[in-house]
Amino acid sequence: MFYLGFTDMITFGLFILSILIVLGAQYYINRSFKEYRTTSNLNNVTGFEVARKMLDHNNLQKVHIVEVKQQLSDHYDPTRKVVRLSTPIFHEKSIAAAAIAAHEVGHAIQDKENYVFLRIRAALVPVVNLISYLGYFAIIIGIFAGAFDFLMIGIYILIATLIFQLVTLPVEIDASRRANEQLLKLDLIQKVEKEKTKAMLNAAALTYVAALISTILTILRLWLMSRSR
Question: Is 65 helix (H, G, I), strand (E, B) or coil?
């Protein structure tokens, strides 16, 4: 009969917990997006109109806004100076559209102002992409080949991912802060809608917090596995 040791139970529990945290955060943002997507903003403006007005107000006329098809794929591209908005955000006149469009423009404003954490994150992206790939490859070798020294390599590389996530968090929080401020300042939303837009942005930020916690739990789980061997 197969028995789980105490360490095995803990590592298994951490694995399940990390999955539940990520899935829970994803469920929450999807539910919030669905709710606020069906809530029209009182000024009857599309996400595109919100983004364009914010960009123009901040002297970012050269930053273009492009529609992309994949839902929740909205982002700002600092290399090409483009705000990419998914189809619902680009066209719809909802609380979700206004909030998410404003958030992405918040990143464009950060870029203009040389926001330090945005610069650090941009510099880390290619490095983290490479070492994350190598890290998971090392973990797979360690688990299936029994070479548990590879687990420690994986841990160190996941720590680099954790550093990237720690840098990303203030970038996202600051972009949301800028979005909330400018939505009101430019009369893009009304004061009674402030809490709704804030709730939508908080839901999006929660996914980054969840990813951060999941990475910490994964590092702890792999460390326990390496110690038990």
Answer: strand
